[in-house]
Each structure stands twice: as structure tokens, then as C-alpha cells.
Amino acid sequence: MPPPQLNIRNKRARFEFHLEDVFHAGIVLSGTEIKSIRNNKASILEAYCIFHEGEIWIRNMFVNEYENGTYNNHRPRADRKLLLNRKEINRIEKFLKIKGNTLIPLKLYLSDKGWVKLEIAFAVGKKLHDKRNDLKLKDDQREMDRALKR
């Protein structure tokens, strides 16, 4: 039986932010968190990453409590440590020191070995006129596709 596919994405990320570099990071999770994530019971829509004491943490990532867990179940919105090498952490720290820059998660996925990984990206917030322009381009593309189908 093939391993279950995770389909946990941050769909708003490309609309809300200009994305730059992308990193793939491991994530430190407990057993009940892993089981809940494998059941697609997680969300990264409101999540963001922070730099704290030489480490990168993801904050506000929601992982639903495991339904078969005991009283030892995890906290749904706890901060979780990301696993990156020192070179990447230093690069991220420099980027986050600039005002207006943030680090956001794009996708939660299973690696070939079965580990849960997180795709994160450097992001700079879009202005309102950028968002309007993106919507206009999307509408124009939709109209062109409709015209081609006819």
C-alpha cells in the first residue's frame, strides 16, 4: 500500500506575499502530532516562522489533537522547531532582520523516507495595488482561456 499523500498547503501565500528563496526543513514533532498530520488534520494558513536563540521555529501552525490520543496529547498551536543547517539559519537570520520581511510556510509534505518536511520561503508582503493587479491578470487569463475553448 503506498504511503498516504499529504495535501497541506498555504494557498494564500502566493497572493499575499512576493516569494523569494525556498527552503525545505525538517520539523520536530511528537508521536500524536505525526499521526494527526498523516491524517491531514493540520493547517499552515496562519503560520509564520521566527528566529529565536539561534534556531528557527514555526509559530501558530495548527495540528489537531489526535482522536485516539490519551491525556498526553499535544497542544494544537504549540511552537515547533525546524531543522535546518547552520548556513541556512544564518541566511534566514540576516533576511529576517530587514523590516517587512518574513518567513512563511508554503507546504507540509512527506519525504521519500516518510519524514514530515516543511517547505518555507522568504516573503515580502504585497501592497493592495499588487494584489489587485494579480487578480486582474488572473481574470484576463481566464477570459483568454474561455475564448480559446470556443
Q: Would you give an account of this structure?
A:
With 150 residues, the protein is of the alpha+beta class. The protein has one domain (8-149): Small protein B (Small Protein B, Chain: A). Helix content is 30%, strand content 34%. The chain has helices at residues 13-16, 31-38, 86-96, 128-149; strands at 8-9, 17-27, 42-43, 48-52, 55-59, 62-63, 80-83, 101-110, 116-125. Strands 1-8-9-2-7-5-4 form a 7-stranded antiparallel β-sheet. Strands 3-6 form a two-stranded antiparallel ribbon. The longest helix is centred in the C-terminal third of the chain and has 22 residues, at 128-149. It is globular and about 55 Å long. The mean pLDDT is 86.
Query: Superfamily at the CATH H level?
Result: Small protein B
The tally of beta strands, per DSSP, is 9
Tell me the major beta sheet. Answer: 7 strands, antiparallel
Uncertain residue segments: none
CATH topology: Small Protein B, Chain: A
Strand order of the largest sheet: 1-8-9-2-7-5-4
End-to-end distance = 43 Å
Helix content: 25-40%
How many domain units? 1
- What is the overall pLDDT average? 86
What radius of gyration results from the CA coordinates?
Answer: 18 Å
**Based on the structure given, which CATH architecture is correct?**
Beta Barrel
The geometry reads as globular
Structural class: alpha+beta
Give the class-level CATH name: Mainly Beta
Question: What amount of the residues lies in strands?
Answer: 25-35%
